[in-house]
């Protein structure tokens, strides 16, 4: 099933429909997407990291969740498949997909699906409308980066603090220095290196920052070691987010790289993690943020709009995180992968 999840798009599969061997599975998915090719012309990928994604869904292995969800990020020009990060955007489509495929029985009005994110082991709960026991994708909720409106999907996260790195602040400090630049290494569902845009000699409001590619790579390679992730040269994490003072009434303005291409917006868990970082006294961006009253949404500005998240922080302990997304079923059918890479 091809679905839009949040501001991403991906292919959703039942785990049982894919090879059990990870290498065989990954080879098949590369052929499905049309990777490696800048246009992905011979597959269903959209020639962009945001549309070269896969969700693998299965019945939950434990009683604390309803389904298990494995996210796979496929390269576009390079034949890579990574499971080292979560994807909160494709996560928005997992609950509806689970109902569509009969893994979860829908409730008469709305359905809550507990989803174990296998990439990190953490749990998210998705709540979405199912009038008459059928998923309803239509609604009045708009999110930046997606035209029109769709049904509201509430995502509530539990246990994402330090999900990949083992701690909210993997270095044990709210601030480190890499290449002479102050950074905050943080993980609340997504490993992120936060740096002030001004440290790179830019405003943080630009639409093209490709000139920073080499500096961003140097920064994240060193941060990966500091964060306990090891050699991240072939990994999409940690992400790097440059922060600047807000321009549209938000918490902070951002420019995010995945890992070296500037994101058209910002990822769900990336936004949650950046919001968490700038709430911490002494962290990079804390002095730039326009902090709203406690309990108010934290609006993260990005190149195509803003993304509202909820984060409840007690010192450096995350009490709760949540976000509103939408998703839509685009196509349900059979894909025909090419025979070889």
From TrEMBL:
Q: What is its EC class?
A: isomerase
Listed InterPro entries: OMA_tautomer-like (IPR047687), PrpF-like (IPR007400)
One Gene Ontology molecular-function label: isomerase activity
Its EC number is 5.3.2.8
Claim: Isomerase is one of the keywords in the record: yes
Please indicate if the UniProt record lists Isomerase as a keyword. yes
Q: Which domain of life is it from?
A: Bacteria
Keywords attached to this Swiss-Prot or TrEMBL record, sorted alphabetically, are: Isomerase
Q: Which family does it belong to?
A: Belongs to the PrpF family.
NCBIfam families from the xrefs?
OMA_tautomer (NF033377)
Q: What is the name of the protein in this document?
A: 4-oxalomesaconate tautomerase
Q: Which organism is it from?
A: Actinomadura darangshiensis
